[in-house]
């Protein structure tokens, strides 16, 4: 279903929300869903409404946001745009399973359509600031934290916020959101509060005109996790191994990953929080008995 936000802006609500803007008989998508099926659905909905499609911005290189691109490019002449870093994942989808598997060649189990999409070609890179694609003039906002080079798109006073924040229900469901950098995630969340717009659409969650409560809930979620990780082994004089702290973390937040892939996604978030606590000077890291070892400082 296509929902209208303003004269030019629309979105298709789904597991991942797809933004759509039309101007001068041209159409721009913001992200394009997980796979071939998602792409076909987008094409069908736009056709039903007689709406054009020429370009697509990929906010970040996670499969649920770019996986449909290859199919879009097979069926239509779509130009794809993203930041330089996130484009690497779109053109080399194996990179996600590689980083989840500690940089080694990933095991077969990780080479599935949720972690490794079909490669698509990129027409050009987006940079921070005002950018133009065809008739579309918009502002690219760097939103790092959930992904290294993630961007938000501010167009016609609507913010397409990607995964810079999650809807409150989504946040509750995931308990621990996927992040690669806790410090940047928090800075991005605080930065969003300073922009003015009529409304914002996250990648996962509802379109809202006032997102303050949702943003505060996201900030609280991350601060709460950081607080747990820095205080959970305070009484242990010798510190704790990173592995043991990770187990405590999984138990505390009741994370029950159903497969290796989701276990690894949580581990990346865990590592991201630990990096920030080390950077903040709350904990130190060393090697003890051949294990990575954490101590409160
Ligand atoms: Zn994402």
- Unreliable stretches (pLDDT < 50, length at least 5) are none
CATH class identity of the largest domain:
Alpha Beta
Q: How many alpha or pi helices?
A: 10
Structural class: alpha/beta
Spell the H/E element sequence.
EEEEHEHHEHHEEEEEHHEHEHHEE
Number of strands: 15
Distance between the termini: 53 Å
CATH-defined topology of the largest domain: Metallo-beta-lactamase, Chain A
Q: What's the oligomerization state?
A: single chain
Radius of gyration: 20 Å
- Write down the domain tally: 2
CATH architecture of the largest domain: 4-Layer Sandwich
Could you estimate the helical fraction of the residues in percent? Answer: 25-40%
Strand order of the largest sheet: 1-2-3-4-5-6-7
Query: Beta fraction of the residues?
Result: 15-25%
Shape: globular
Protein name: Glyoxylase-like metal-dependent hydrolase (Beta-lactamase superfamily II)
InterPro entries: Metallo-B-lactamas, NDM-1-like, RibonucZ/Hydroxyglut_hydro
Domain Metallo-beta-lactamase: 15-204
What does this structure look like?
Pfam families: Lactamase_B. This is Glyoxylase-like metal-dependent hydrolase (Beta-lactamase superfamily II). It comes from Lederbergia wuyishanensis. With 297 residues, this protein is of the alpha/beta class. It has two domains: 2-221, Metallo-beta-lactamase, Chain A (4-Layer Sandwich); 235-296, no CATH class. It is 36% helix and 23% strand. It has helices at 36-48, 63-66, 69-75, 84-91, 95-100, 168-174, 182-192, 212-231, 242-252, 260-279, and strands spanning 2-4, 9-12, 18-23, 26-30, 55-57, 79-82, 124-125, 129-133, 136-142, 151-155, 158-162, 199-202, 240-241, 283-288, 291-296. The strands form three sheets. Strands 1-2-3-4-5-6-7 form a seven-stranded mixed β-sheet. Strand 3 (18-23) and strand 4 form a beta hairpin. The chain is globular and about 65 Å long. 43% of the residues are buried. The mean pLDDT is 97. The chain binds zinc ion (ZN). The site of zinc ion has 6 residues, from loops.
């Amino acid at each position: 279903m296509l929902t209208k936000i303003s004269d030019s802006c629309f979105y298709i609500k789904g597991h991942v929300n797809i933004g759509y803007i039309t101007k001068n008989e041209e159409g721009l998508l913001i992200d394009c869903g997980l796979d071939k099926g998602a792409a076909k659905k987008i094409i069908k909905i736009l056709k039903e409404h007689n709406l054009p499609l020429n370009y697509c911005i990929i906010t970040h290189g996670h499969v649920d946001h770019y996986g449909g691109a290859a199919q879009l490019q097979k069926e239509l002449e779509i130009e794809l745009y993203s930041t330089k870093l996130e484009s690497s994942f779109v053109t080399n989808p194996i990179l996600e399973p590689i980083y989840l598997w500690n940089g080694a060649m990933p095991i077969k189990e990780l080479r599935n359509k949720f972690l490794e999409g079909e490669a698509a070609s990129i027409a050009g890179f987006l940079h921070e600031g005002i950018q133009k694609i065809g008739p579309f003039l918009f502002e690219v906002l760097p939103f790092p934290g959930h992904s290294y080079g993630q961007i938000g798109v501010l167009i016609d006073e609507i913010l397409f916020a990607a995964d810079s924040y999650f809807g409150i229900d989504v946040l509750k469901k995931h308990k621990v959101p996927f992040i690669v950098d806790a410090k940047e995630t928090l800075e991005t969340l605080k930065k969003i509060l300073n922009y003015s717009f009529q409304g914002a659409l996250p990648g996962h969650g509802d379109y809202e005109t006032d997102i303050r409560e949702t943003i505060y809930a996201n900030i609280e979620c991350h601060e709460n996790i950081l607080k747990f990780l820095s205080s959970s082994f305070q009484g242990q004089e010798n510190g704790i191994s990173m592995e043991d702290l990770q187990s405590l973390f999984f138990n505390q937040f009741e994370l029950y990953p159903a497969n290796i892939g989701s276990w690894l996604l949580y581990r990346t978030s865990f590592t991201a929080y630990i990096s920030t606590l080390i950077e903040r000077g709350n904990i130190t890291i060393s090697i003890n008995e051949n294990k990575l070892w954490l101590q409160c400082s």
